[in-house]
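Q: Joint fold for the lines below.
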Amino acid sequence: MSVAPGTLVRMKQNDIPDGGGTAVQVRGLVKHYGETKALDGVDLDVREGTVLGVLGPNGAGKTTLVRILSTLIRPDAGSARVAGYDVLTQPRQLRRAIGLTGQYASVDEKLSGFENLYMIGRLLDLSRKDARRRADDLLERFSLTEAAKRPAGQYSGGMRRRLDLAASMIGHPAVLYLDEPTTGLDPRTRNEVWTEVQGMVREGATVLLTTQYMEEAEQLADELTVIDRGRVIAGGGIDELKAKVGGRTLQIRPADRSELPRVVGAVAQAGLDGVAGATADEAEGVVNVPIVSDHQLTSVVGLMAERGIALAGINTHLPSLDEVFLAITGQKTSTAAEDTPADTLQEISA
Amino acid sequence: MSAATITAPAKAHSADTRIPLRSHLRHIGALARRNLLAIKQDPESMFDAVLMPIIFTLMFVYVFGGAMFGKGHQEQYVNYLVPGLLAMTGLNIAMAVGTGINEDFRKGIMDRFRTMPIARSSVLIAKIVSELFRLMVAVAIQLGMGFALGLEVKTSVLHLFAAIGLSIVFGASLMWIFILLGLTMKTAQAVQGVAMLVLMPLQFGSSIFAPTNSMPGWLKSFADYNPLANLADASRNLLQGGPVAHSVWLTLAWAVGITVITAPLAVARFRNKT
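A: Joint structure:
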């Protein structure tokens, strides 16, 4: 098999057969810190070759879950198997099968990008030559070749996350944990990281992704588990969940406000499945249409053209995490509802 | 479908999950290299190893030397003091290990190390290896300073190396104490505070700076059992001539005793740290 330099190729022994077994299996996981129930009986599965998004607000137990699954802490009760290995009885084998990219980049700031990756290669028992080659390949793949000799401490936030991702990939892990990989990053950098993760996923990586952002889950995950206060409160495919929470909202602004009823009427006739009907917002001069698929978006827009309704604006917006929670539980998130990415950014830089 | 269908890496299949010795040494090498590269990147971290011996030697020789041996006769004090300072170097370097490991542990990189298939002791042993490098630099500067001010080795080069070796062995054992301390205490400042508290009596309640004869009985008894004083005596007699057997063996016994007790505790502490 010929491989272009810089591409990631799984080593044979880590290849996960198609058709998918369960790469991560969590049953009844409990972890208490004094009175705080960080995890209070969590069950979840990640199928091989898929991305499971674990969505939840700050303090929902996401990081505790990842720390247990990477053998950093021990659960109080319940069981978890990763790549077939038990977190409690086979930690050493399990560690060989995982890669971890944490919320705070786990790279050595004093070492250069190259030295970071080389060190990890050596710790994973690569020969000097192989460790060097693997480091160079991954630096190239993650567009860090030019910065290879600079200390990681001088990297921008996005470069550091990319180096962190590269470090996690050195051992060709069977399962990759991404613990809030874009928390605290600006939107452009966030897109960079998403692109890298999507690349890995295309190559068949099995990923457990934790995130606070619905948008991130939608971009990266195949399936979602929503957790709050240490409990799973919803789960399933992205589309299922979106159907449940109303998915995206399409906002149509006709050029002439008097056309609002016509827009509503047209959408009603389109016969969209699985969503509540369109509602006109007279004050804003828009019609809000909940949609669950791109196909529905296309047909609604097509219908407007067909009916000759002149439009002044059209856009879609995703439900926020808070709206998702509201739809599932009828309650706001347990932590501060106004926890926006901007807030998080400030927290981290503070 | 069961999770067992995932093919795990071949190595993990072996029944023996212990890390083979060669891999263990490779891991220690890679981690020690990391520590040394960090020193290279941040040369200020060598200040204590480089400046402490210079400042201590100058300060004590010129402040106390004249008072003890008369003005202009400081070089006599050099021969008394420098072997003692050689003994103290290990303690000073070891102290920095505690604060260093405490700070290191706060960084995300430690999480990465702890999720990798390496023996957790290798992280600590690598720390000792790179700190021994710092200790050797400090010892070399200490001796260079001593020779510049008139230190004489009245025995032989072999005795000199024995004294150096003894200081390094004892210093390495002290490092385990401070690693344990660094992993146990919450902040680097707390480690520093406790270290100073332990350090001062051990340094000054000893024969490092002045003979113990003039000390009151209780302090003299303390100094007689003070392992640092034993090391200072051993070091002094190795360089200046005099009975060495008792103090050398006692120092080695202390070094072994300290390591045997604190090293496993430190590794266990590291393993269970969350």
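Q: Anything notable?
A: Residues 20-272 of chain B form one domain. Chain B touches chain A at residues 1-12, 17, 23, 26-27, 29-31, 33-34, 37-38, 41-42, 107-118, 274 (CB under 8 Å).
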